[in-house]
Automatic annotation (TrEMBL):
Pfam families: HTH_3 (PF01381), Rep_trans (PF02486), Rol_Rep_N (PF18106). InterPro entries: Cro/C1-type_HTH, Lambda_DNA-bd_dom_sf, REP-like_C, Rol_Rep_N. One of its GO terms (molecular function) is DNA binding. This is Phage replication initiation protein. The lineage of its organism: Bacteria, Bacillati, Bacillota, Clostridia, Lachnospirales. Residues 17-72 form the HTH cro/C1-type domain. Coiled coil: none annotated.
Length: 437
């Protein structure tokens, strides 16, 4: 590209960027602060008074995307643990049948114990545990993947997580832990940028500590263009406290664990709010009470409660040496993330069948190379040892039961969906017939 053509292209690019900035109601100062440069220097770059390098082109586009109020954000339940005031096998079966609506026959007896609970049963990643000490009650635990698996059941019955939390609330359970994850689909959050804010003291928190980690696998170094990493993670608070905040690059995690290309990962970042004991109980009470009264729309209530909790414990600011810290302005990226009113906040569901991906990945990465070597060895020796071992192996009973139940549930969902569709068609035909008459 000639110097003249490059100059014309640069001018058009800068004009387009400035139009986008104004459309988003952003000032040059706000954009410059997110870039870590002065407003004057940003203006010089945009007007061509200073050379604009390739890296800065990308950073400016990224910041405008992060500050876009139209960016999509959803909230999901990512972990749940409660204690029922019940005991023994009768209590376990009642919870399975009446609360979870999963036949207890699908639960498997685990060989290990959980803390002081001697008897542990599991269905996938849903755990029920009881102790010989009746005072300890029964623990119901949903791990992350369990939440996604159970959403098949919720959607089939037309339930939401709010409905399920209300059901638990009516049983007078003891709330032990509730994790809410805020999914960032458009890269609004910049974990590295927020870490720098922590290092410079440009944040306000009730938590007593923060931690930052970069981790990864060396065998992915070349694939990620020299970027070593599973991604960046920023922790605010301690695991033992009533609230613990964790934010990380979800796209890198998906790339390393499942091989999903970074550009194809739907969720770019995730912020998790881990609530324990009384703080978890108060949050559930607020959600149920406010939604039950119905004075505001669900998205407004969720927005107010969830982001209200987040900003009560943590928010980021912009340093102003002429003002005391309590008067520093809210960081523009954080402001857009928390107060972008154009988005529709909801507790989303993302139902997934029993996750076989991890098992397939383990087979492909760890077992397949060894298995192929043994197959070649058997072939050379005229034997069939490995094939015989696979054919004679007993199927994993837990996996078989889980797949069986979910197959039944999915089949019912398809029948139900088909029934609804047929009803809609019948209504349309009746309406069309009436109009013809």
């Amino acid at each position: 590209m000639s110097k003249e053509k490059r100059s014309i292209w640069h001018e058009k690019w800068c004009t387009k960027v400035e139009e986008q900035r104004k459309t988003q109601n952003l000032t040059q100062k706000q954009v410059a602060e997110c870039l870590g440069i002065s407003r004057r220097y940003y203006n010089q770059l945009i007007t061509g008074k200073k050379p604009l390098k390739r890296k800065m082109y990308k950073e400016i586009r990224a910041v405008l995307k992060q500050l876009d109020p139209e960016n999509l954000v959803t909230v999901i339940v990512d972990y749940l643990r409660v204690r029922f005031p019940l005991t023994g096998m009768d209590g376990m079966k009642w919870i399975a049948h009446d609360i979870l609506e999963i036949p207890f026959k699908f639960f498997r007896k685990e060989k290990h114990r959980w803390h002081n609970y001697e008897h542990v049963y599991s269905f996938g990643n849903i755990f029920l545990s009881y102790s010989d000490d009746e005072k300890m009650g029964i623990i119901l635990e949903f791990k992350g993947q369990a939440c996604r698996q159970y959403e098949i059941h919720l959607e089939y019955h037309g339930y939401t997580w709010i409905n399920f939390l209300a059901t638990l609330w009516n049983q007078d359970v003891k709330w032990k832990r509730l994790d809410l994850a805020i999914n960032d689909y458009d890269g609004i959050l910049n974990i590295e940028y927020l870490h720098k804010k922590c290092k410079t003291g440009e944040f306000v928190t009730r938590c007593k500590s923060f931690d930052y980690r970069e981790s990864g696998e060396t065998n992915h170094y070349e694939e990620l263009d020299g970027k070593l990493g599973l991604g960046r993670t920023l922790y605010i608070g301690k695991r033992s406290s009533a609230i613990y905040i964790c934010m990380y690059e979800k796209d890198y995690e998906q790339y390393i664990t499942k091989g999903v290309p970074l550009e194809d990962a739907p969720i770019k970042n995730r912020l998790e709010i881990r609530l324990s004991d009384e703080r978890a109980e108060r949050t559930v009470e607020e959600l149920i009470t406010n939604l039950h009264h119905g004075e505001c729309a669900e998205d407004e209530i969720l927005d107010e409660i969830i982001f209200g909790i987040l900003n009560h414990y943590l928010y980021f600011v912009v340093e102003d040496k002429n003002q005391p810290k309590n008067e520093w302005e809210l960081d523009p990226i954080w402001e857009r993330f928390c107060y972008g009113r154009t988005r529709n906040i909801r507790i989303a569901t993302n139902p997934k069948p029993f996750d076989l991906d991890a098992k397939y990945n383990w087979i492909i990465r760890q077992v397949a190379p060894t298995a192929k070597t043994l197959l070649v060895h058997d072939y050379q020796k005229g034997r069939t040892d490995l094939i015989d071992a696979i054919n004679n192996a007993k199927p994993n009973e837990e996996l078989r039961k889980a797949v069986e139940l979910e197959t039944q549930m999915i089949a019912k969902m398809k029948v139900k969906s088909k029934g609804i569709a047929e009803m809609q068609i019948e209504k349309m035909e009746v309406k069309e017939g009436a109009e013809e008459k």
